[in-house]
């Protein structure tokens, strides 16, 4: 069982930046690919980015490519999502998840509780 806890969300103006963190409770975290997803009110959960367990591969949704960067620190059992040039349409609850290297949320085993990101226009 891997417990994931997100932090770093908040309110930011358009064009601003935030860095989300996801802390894992177990060292087995280092064997999982880690993804970030988001869900806006009334919408389905949406893939944002994923990083492989060995940090070699990353993959981004087209909507965030060039603005967001996913990274991980295996020693600290942390995953980050650096979000720059934020737009109002980035407003959502952001979740980290552990599982497959995939954009499909059903292929992830463990999920955090989410952190709210609000971008004001």
Structure report:
The chain is mostly beta strands and 121 residues long. Helix content is 0%, strand content 50%. It contains no helices and eleven strands. The strands form two sheets. Strands 2, 4, 5, 6, 9, 10 and 11 form a seven-stranded mixed β-sheet that branches. Strand 4 (33-39) and strand 5 (46-51) form a beta hairpin. The protein is globular, with a radius of gyration of 13 Å. The N and C termini lie far apart (40 Å).
Strands, count: 11
Count of alpha and pi helical runs? 0
Shape: globular
Strand content: over 45%
Task: Note the topology.
Blueprint: E1 4-7, E2 10-13, E3 18-24, E4 33-39, E5 46-51, E6 58-60, E7 68-73, E8 78-83, E9 92-99, E10 108-111, E11 115-120
Parallel strand pairs: 2-11
Antiparallel strand pairs: 1-3, 3-8, 4-5, 4-9, 5-6, 7-8, 9-10, 9-11
């Amino acid at each position: 069982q891997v417990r994931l806890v997100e932090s770093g969300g908040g309110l930011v103006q358009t064009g601003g930046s935030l860095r989300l963190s996801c802390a894992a409770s177990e060292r087995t975290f280092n064997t999982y690919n880690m993804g970030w997803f988001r869900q806006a009110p009334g919408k389905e959960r949406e893939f944002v980015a994923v990083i492989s367990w060995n940090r070699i591969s990353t993959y981004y949704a087209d909507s965030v490519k060039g603005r967001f960067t996913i990274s991980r620190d295996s020693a600290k059992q942390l995953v980050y999502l650096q979000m720059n040039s934020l737009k109002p349409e980035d407003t959502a609850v952001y979740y980290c998840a552990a599982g497959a290297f995939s954009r499909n949320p059903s292929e992830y085993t463990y999920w955090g509780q989410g952190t709210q990101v609000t971008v004001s226009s």
